[in-house]
Every structure is written in C-alpha cells, then in structure tokens.
C-alpha cells in the first residue's frame, strides 16, 4: 500500500493513458479505484496516529506510576536481595557517610567514611630511632611495647610500624605474623585506608618478596573477593591503587565490570552535585539522565533534611523494568526510550519513514523521551475493502494486459503467416517460371527453324523433357503436400528394404546432378534393412533431402548418403558440406513455407515445403527427422524409422 502513491505518479499515469486507448471503461475503473485507495490510506494514517497517540498517553502514565512507586520505596527502603538487577544501586548520602545497597555493587565511593586514626605524636620517639638514628632494634623494641596497648588505634599504628621494621631487619616470617594480628583489627584506618586492608596488602608484598607464589595467589585472591563484595568503602584513588597491585600479583585484570564502574561514576556525579549545592537538589524529588562509563544512567533522587536518597539505574534496568512497563501499556504499538540527544536508552528506535508519536521529556516530566511507533493499522472493514479493490484492479489490469498480449500475438502470427504465404507464392511462381521459360525457348527455337540438324533437335527435345519433368515434380509435390496436410494422402505400408530404396533414389538423383559437377557417395551397412513403409513416399522424402543438400552445398560438390541399422531402428542420413543452417533457424526449418536466410540472400530456389513434406512423411511412418550442422561447414539430416523384424 505504501507504494501506491509513487506508482500513481509515474508509470501509473502511462498505464492509464494506455487503458484509455485500449479500454476507456477499464481506465475509468482503475482511476476511481486508485483514488479510493488513496482515501482509504489517508483514513488509515489518521486512525493509526490516533492509536499511537492513545498508546503513548497510556505508556507515559504507566511510567509515571512506576517512578512514583520507586520514589515511595526510596523513602521507606524495603529492598530484598532479589530486587536489584545487575546495573541498579540504591544510595543514601549524608554529610558524614554514603551507604549503598546491595553491598559490593559500587567498586568505590565518592569519599571514604570517617574512621579512627592513631595519633601520630605517640610514635615520635619510635620514628626518631628509625629514621634519625637508624636504630632499628631500638625502634622495634618501642613498637613491640606499644603494640600491647589496650587502645585499638594505638595498637594498630604500632603493629604497622612493627611489621615495617621487621621487614627492614630481614625477618619476613615475623613480619607476616605481625600483619596477621593487624588484619584482625576493624574500624581503624591508616592514612584513610582500612587497617585490615593495609595488613593484607603488606602480607602480599612480603610473600612476593619471599617468592611464596602459592600463598601469594591465595592471599591476593581473598583480597579480590572481599573487594568485590564491598567489604571496604574505598575512594576511587585507593580502589585504583589496590586494583593495580592485585592485577600484578594475580597476573590478571581484576577491575570491576563496566556496569559497576558506570554506577560508581553515577553516584560520584550525584554526590558532587549535592555537595556543590546544585539548584535542582532544592526540590524534594528529581530525575536525571547522565552519561557515565559509556552508558546512559537514570538517576532518581529524593531530598530530605540530612541528605538525599537516590536510585541509580543502568540501561539493563531501564530495558527490563521501564521499557517493559511502557511496552505493556502501549500495545500493540512498539515503544522505546531515548535520551534528549536522541541516543537510545532502551528499545530500538523506529525505522526511517515509520509513523511515530514522540513525547519529549520536557512535556512529560519523565527523564526520557518516549517514542511510540507501529506498523500500518489494519482495521477489519477498511483492510477488507482495500484488498478487494486491489484484487479488482489487478484482475482488470491482468485481463487488459492478457487480452492485449493475445491480440498482439494473433495479429503477429497472422502477419507472419501472410508473409510466409507471400514468400511461398513468390517462390512457387519463380519455380514455375523457370521450366516454363525453358519450354518456351526450346519450342520457339524448334518452330523458327524446321531444318535444324537432327542432333540439335534431340538436344532441344531433351531440354523440353527435363523442363516438363521439373514442372511435373513441382505440381505433384504441391498436390501431395496439400493432401498430406488435409489428411487425404493414403500410405501403402508394406515390408520393404530401405537399402534398395536408398540405392535407387541415389542413382536417380546422381544422374540429374552429375552434369552440375556433383558427386553423390552412398555407404550402407551390409544386409537388408527392412522397414514397414510406402516406397513412393519415402523415396520422395529422400529425394527432397538430396535436392535440399544440392541447393545448399555452396561451392562444395560432394553429398554423402548413409544407411545404418540398429537393433530396433534404421537411420538414413544425408550430409552436405555447404553453408549450414544458423542456430536461430534450426527450430523453424521443418515448418511449411519457411526458407532459411541463406536461401534469400544467395537466391537459392525453392518453395519452402520440401522439409515440411519430409517431416509429414516420416511421422506418418512412425519415425523422426532431425538435423545436425555447423554453420559454414554443412548439415546432416537424419531420418530414423522403426525396423521391421
């Protein structure tokens, strides 16, 4: 249907002009049908637009309800472990901490939560002995004494320094034991890094120095597992440092996947906007689309007195939740969600030229642009009438085209038949004129001079006899052909030796053409070649083939006749070495009145019924006739007859 307008504007007009000439009523019907189809199409477009408008309204309403439910869920969190797809995280941001659910979903945080740090001045004497006096043993003694303190931050700081001093003193086994004690301490940080993570990293470094690869692999893998589970709320710089170390120890990239990286960047954007006092955080609720980590994230937040609660979702959640809700509401239309830039967030955008309805984010208040599209509406009655009109138009066009074709074909065949008959009349007239002219000349010569020598008179009379014989053969051929076509030619089928017939006809024909320089060679298999046939008719068929070979021999003067026997057939072949038959004419040469292009171009005489007569006779005997040739190198005509046992 979409192609009707273009069809009507270009070739359709030519078709209407043609129909106006051939059949004005058909043209009128086609014009009215096309106009009605265009009206139906306009109605369908209007109806489709209304359907898409309604579907988009339902989809926007469904999305608004879904977002309102999520906002209520943010205010009173009740999320279970199964509520979190891979690319969604729920965050709560306050001035002193950031919480994320589920744990481990974010590889790092915008800032690290506050933790206890040991006072640096407590270790002044220890560090003086270590760095100023290079008295590592004295410094180790002080560290051992402080590591027994009850104060946990003090003990943690002393154990860090004790492990460092033992490594400097080349006592790695003791250092490993100290770091193991340190790894059991929680809620204490050294330079912002959780002390248990510091201890486990230090153990990996010692194991690497000792080339204890199996233990190193086990320890590093354990750290990687805890890192992925979200055990330590690290900032980005600390996370990148830990990942770099683990990748080197494990000889593999342990960086988190793209979805978690993008979520972390989204939370970082949210934190910086909130701490920076962005004006849109003054509202109680907000919605935003951002690009982070090569992905489009949807951020929904709710502000409160002490901070902000937000949901950060990636494209997978948008597809499985929001696009699904939109699609369910907009059925049977198709829907998709786009960013303001036109980049797809979820779903496939409609194809070029496909009818659509667009709801921009500025109009709906949603974070996305909603697009609803669909195939052409097919209302029942409208579609049925359209199919009927198309079927009627096609039927009319097929009828007109078929009628025109058959009329053209009939006229063309009649014209071809008329041309053939005209050529036949011309050829027959020429065939009759030649012997008649010969008779007239010899008769006038005999009448003018009665005292001609006896030898000359005999020669003239022989010429008259040949001319009369030629006329007789021509007349008999025409009469026989007419009787054959009318089914009035009776055949007396009797057992006969085809070899004897071939010899007789060949000898007769040889005597007629020997004066023109022809040699007729005959070869046949030994023994009798018995067939059931009419000797006179088969002799005429063979004579026609020989006469045809002589006419088209060109400069060659050699004709070959062969007779071969097979188990159930007898084949008779006549070969010349003349001009041959063009490939385009082989299929028509056995039709009546048809003469080849060589006959016309070289002035070769003939009536165009010789080969047609051969085919009639052979078919009447239950046989077949065929031709094989090479243009310019001659032709071979072969008659195949059933053998008589």
**Overall pLDDT level:** 80
Q: How many helical elements?
A: 19
Instruction: Label the structural class.
Output: alpha+beta
Radius of gyration, rounded?
Answer: 54 Å
- CATH architecture of one domain, by name, is 2-Layer Sandwich
Would you count the extended β strands for me? 18
Main sheet attributes: strand count, strand direction, barrel closure: 5 strands, antiparallel
| CATH level-4 homologous superfamily of one domain | Histidine kinase-like ATPase, C-terminal domain
Low-confidence stretches: 1-10
- Helix content estimate: 40-55%
Q: End-to-end span in angstroms?
A: 70 Å
**CATH C-level name of one domain:** Alpha Beta
- Strand content range: 15-25%
Question: How is this structure best described in words?
Answer:
It is a single chain. This protein has 645 residues and is α+β, with helices and mostly antiparallel strands. Among the domains are: 148 residues, Serine Threonine Protein Phosphatase 5, Tetratricopeptide repeat, CATH 1.25.40; 84 residues, Helix Hairpins (Orthogonal Bundle), CATH 1.10.287; 153 residues, Histidine kinase-like ATPase, C-terminal domain (Heat Shock Protein 90). It is 55% helix and 16% strand. The chain has 19 helices and 18 strands. The strands form 5 sheets. Strands 2-1-7-6-5 form a 5-stranded antiparallel beta sheet. Strand 3 and strand 4 form a beta hairpin. The longest helix has 69 residues. The protein is elongated and about 170 Å long. It starts with a helix and ends with a strand.
